[in-house]
Amino acid sequence: MQNREKPHPARGATIVVNGVEQPVNVDVRTTLLDYLRDHLHLTGTKKGCDHGQCGACTVHVNGRRINACLALALAHAGDEVTTIEGLGAPERLHPMQAAFVAHDGYQCGYCTSGQIMSAVALLDEPCGRDDADVRECMSGNLCRCGAYANIVAAIQQVRREGGK
Predict the structure, then answer these.
(1) What are 43-73's pLDDT values in tens digits?
(2) Tally of CB atoms within 10 A around 20
(3) 57 CB contacts (<8 Å, ≥6 apart)?
(4) Which ranges constitute the DSSP H helices of 4-162?
(5) pLDDT above 80 (res 2)
C-alpha cells in the first residue's frame, strides 16, 4: 500500500467575497462552491448537480458569471466574488431580485439564486432583445419547477427599466 501525502492547505491566499477580504486556508482541492458554503457559511449559493450542468451555484467572479462548483477556490485568490448575499438584502433588493418577486420568478426557490446571478450578469453581456434570446442566454440555468416564463418576464422588465 502506497503512502499518499494529503494535500496541504494554502496559506496567505485571500479572496474578496461580497466586498470583504477573506482568507482562503483550504485544501487545494476545495471548490469555490464548497469554500463559500462550508467555510464562509454563505449558503445562498446552492449545490445542485455539482457538475456544472444546472447553474444553481452561479456566482460572479470579477463581474462575470461562473459555476462555482467547477472552480477551485484557490484559483480565484485575489479575485472579487459576489454571491447572492452580496447582491442585495431584504430591505434593499437589487432590481433583479425585486423583479423576480414581482413576476413570481421562483417556485421551490432552489435555483433562484443562480438564476438571479445569471440574470444580473446577462445585463452586461451581449444578448438580443427577444424573449428567445434571453432564454438562450439563460440556458445554463435549469429550473425543475418550470418557472421559465416568469423568469424571462422578470429579466425583460429589468432590461426595459435599465436596472442594475
Answers:
(1) 999 999 999 999 999 999 999 999 999 999 9
(2) 10
(3) 33, 45, 46, 47, 48, 67, 68, 69, 114
(4) 32-34, 84-87, 95-102, 112-122, 131-137, 148-161
(5) no
Spatial contact of 65 and 121, defined as CB atoms under 8 Å apart: yes
Number of residues assigned to the chain: 164
Instruction: State in Å, rounded, how far the first CA of the chain is from the last one.
Output: 57
Q: Where are the domains of the chain?
A: 14-86, 89-161
Helix 148-161 vs helix 112-122: crossing angle, to nearest 10 = 40
Q: Are 78 and 70 in contact (CB under 8 A)?
A: no
Homologous superfamily of the 89-161 domain (CATH): [2Fe-2S]-binding domain (1.10.150.120)
